[in-house]
Amino acid sequence: MDKILEVKNLHVDFDTYNGVVHAIRGVDFHLNAGETLAIVGESGSGKSITVRSILQLLAKNGTISQGEVLYHGDDLLQRSDKEMDKLRGNKISMIFQDPMTSLDPTMTIGKQVAEPLLIHNNVSKKDALKRAEEVLRLVGIPNPKARMNDYPHQFSGGQRQRIVIAIAIVNYPEILIADEPTTALDVTVQAQIIDLLKELQQKIGTSIIFITHDLGVVAGIADRVAVMYAGRLVEYGSVNDVFYNPQHPYTWGLLDSMPTLDTSESDRLNSIPGTPPNLLNPPKGDAFAPRNAYAMAIDEEEQPPFFKVSKHHYAATWLLHPDAPKVTPPASILKRYEKFKTLGGNVENV
Amino acid sequence: MSDQKEVIVSVKNLKQYFNIGKPNMVKAVDDVSFDIYKGETFGLVGESGSGKSTTGRSIIRLYNPTDGHIYFNGQDISTIKSHGPKMKEFRREMQMIFQDPYASLNPRMKVKDIIAEGLDVHHLVNSEDERDKRVRELLDMVNLNPEHMTRYPYEFSGGQRQRIGIARALAVDPQFIIADEPISALDVSIQAQVVNLMQDIQKKKGLTYLFIAHDLSMVKYISDRIAVMYRGKIVELADSDEIYNNPLHAYTKSLLSAIPVPDPEIEKTRTRIDFDHKRPFLDDQRLQEVLPGHFLYCNDEQAAKIKN
């Protein structure tokens, strides 16, 4: 498959009053053409910072201290801000979390959707507005012709997020980065927006990086999944690998702490104890070790490398080391392994 | 529902309107009735704007109800005066946990003063030592380090702040707690911690909860019974398993069909049921019991059909 984006050894630091926060501590991943990659993690895990680094949209106190962002093999981090401007909202565009704040309240939505066209393409205002109308229809705004002249406050939350999506796709981007696009929405609206993104992906063939903390949403939209914790990836693989054959105890914990509709009140929820580490002083060993019931002595000492689980599935946990003792994952994870077998996968190293 | 269960809160035809008489009048809660039994967790779900939070806030009398009655342990609390002694007495029995653990703790107050505020207001402690002792007990109960009682809220994470909010609610030893989206601002791994804590405390103290949320899987997990709200009305009310296994109202069905499940195979086959928002309510409809303990907003004809 064609890799259109590749992030290599990304390190991002933030200068704060308390010192330097090492928000991203060596992240590698790639995006294949036409696929949806989901990056999952808790707040503060660095998932938003990672994708903002791709477009160099970091806050002023943030610096990319190391790494490469290869777009068709060309390192974006070497480009000037001006050169990046040509890419942003054009070939690579972004949908932000909060549709209430990412639209300009003083500008009609027709103009806002047409804006990227006028900036990046040599089109007349008339043509741009015509195209904006088409795109608004595509994202499901009823009667777009009449509503082009309305302002954001005249739309509901779900409609506003559709408008934000329209702005992002008006130039048919190759890569669409969606940073928690449904978190602020109600579940029924969330389901509609996810269906819309899938439909658009088929129509315009864009590749999507989808950031979320909701594993239910990931299961529905992703082809591949990367799990982040404390500024590093801990596990990545196909959506089936990660949901049915998870190997990292953090992935276990995430999957295990969500009640499913089958969980009854007598079953106690398995929470992950403790809180994520402070990245002012990142731990020497595995950052998850203090919260990990399966942690071994080496986890305190040395960061685990990625171990190969199957062809496209990797996890950074010492449990996968050949010398590691065999452990039994939580019961709900064992159930997932069962399902993995029926799906035809092999459970290795368990 | 067996009849022996003791009702702790009874809401009768509650209406909570805003901007009354103006063109922008909102019927946030529109003729809602339900009972909450002692010791249970009653879940109230709905989407934003459905009136679920307003219902909770009306019950604890943060608003003056437009119409209807709220009975707490048999006493009508819908008309007691806002600043009278009766209100103070009642507020000791009923407490609230808020959604946003960042906005609901005063950033300029020490944790011990936040937690002890209720103790001070109700004169429940006689000395500084007793006050500190009680704060320590409360922090210990919510699994926070009592040594941290002199710290300020900003020094705590979201999950820890929510524990402080819980400790504050528990300080006056209430019977009934309204939790308005207590976990929706928290990360997945922290949500489970807070939910487990709330359940442990419920068992220990025999508390009754009104749990307001939009996360249906968590509500199902924590609640004994669930009411589904839509546009200011309860459209369906039943035991939590019954709501999930046998939803009767089209809106409940649509809501359930939209819940994402962390299982790719299920997600692949999930079909979303759309709900027609154009004419959701008809004049001859009301909330009525159609199956034992299962209430549905429908007309008599529909009810008779389901009963048979």
From TrEMBL, chain A:
Annotated GO CC locations: plasma membrane
Main subcellular localisation: membrane
Positions of the ABC transporter domain: 5-255
SMART domains: AAA
Stored CDD domains: ABC_NikE_OppD_transporters (cd03257)
Gene Ontology molecular function: any one: ATP binding
Transmembrane segments: none
Compartments in which it is found: Cell membrane
Residues in the signal sequence: none
Membrane topology label: Peripheral membrane protein
Family classification: Belongs to the ABC transporter superfamily.
Protein name as annotated: ABC transporter ATP-binding protein
Organism: Companilactobacillus suantsaicola
UniProtKB/TrEMBL annotation, chain B:
Keywords: ATP-binding, Nucleotide-binding, Peptide transport, Protein transport, Transport
Membrane topology designation: Peripheral membrane protein
InterPro entries membership: AAA+_ATPase (IPR003593), ABC_transp_ATP-bind (IPR050319), ABC_transporter-like_ATP-bd (IPR003439), ABC_transporter-like_CS (IPR017871), Oligopep_ABC_C (IPR013563), P-loop_NTPase (IPR027417)
Main location: membrane
PROSITE patterns membership: ABC_TRANSPORTER_1, ABC_TRANSPORTER_2
Gene Ontology terms describing biological process: peptide transport; protein transport; transmembrane transport
Domain ABC transporter: 9-256
CDD domains: ABC_NikE_OppD_transporters
Keyword ATP-binding: yes
Pfam families to which the protein is assigned, alphabetical: ABC_tran, oligo_HPY
GO CC terms: plasma membrane
Subcellular location field: Cell membrane
SMART domains: AAA
An annotated Gene Ontology molecular function: ATP binding
Recorded family membership: Belongs to the ABC transporter superfamily.
Name of the protein: ATP-binding cassette domain-containing protein
